[in-house]
Design a protein that fits this description.
This protein is mostly helical. The chain has helices at about 5-35, 40-65, 75-120.
């Protein structure tokens, strides 16, 4: 069997395994974060989480498939490791960049939600001072 095909098979197996592991980790731990961002709406958090995971899979699997093409011919075991390290390194960098991008965007949503919560008073106002307040103009004749 050609060593280039062996390198491709190993690359696909490791890349797919890493993508599945990262997606499951992000899904499991990101759900809590999304629930906070979405003000405790668990159903919406689950739906958004699922959509993010599907998008994550599509982008990463598409990238893995496109990056599979390599013009180098692998002639020995050293070449297999070199091709694998280069290809897997790029896949890991893309996975990390996508993760950081998702966290950044979700953190922006979370901050906006926290700011919205802070603008709402914790209790309803008890009324207003009207003309009886200390800043009111003195009544005529006083």
């Amino acid at each position: 069997m050609d060593l280039t095909v062996v390198a491709y098979a190993i690359y696909l197996a490791i890349s797919l395994g890493l993508t599945i592991w990262v997606a499951r980790t992000l899904s499991r731990n990101g759900r809590v974060f999304l629930a906070d961002v979405l003000h405790g709406n668990e159903k919406l958090a689950d739906a958004v989480n699922h959509l993010l995971v599907v998008g994550f899979y599509l982008v990463n699997l598409g990238f893995i498939a496109l990056y599979l093409q390599d013009d180098t011919t692998v002639g020995n075991a050293r070449g297999v490791f070199e091709v694998l390290s280069r290809n897997l390194g790029v896949v890991l960098l893309v996975l990390g960049a996508m993760h950081l991008g998702n966290v950044y965007v979700l953190n922006r949503f979370r901050r906006r939600g926290l700011m919205d919560r802070e603008q709402v008073p914790p209790v309803l106002p008890q009324g207003h001072a009207g003309e009886q307040g200390p800043w009111a103009a003195p009544a005529a004749g006083h």
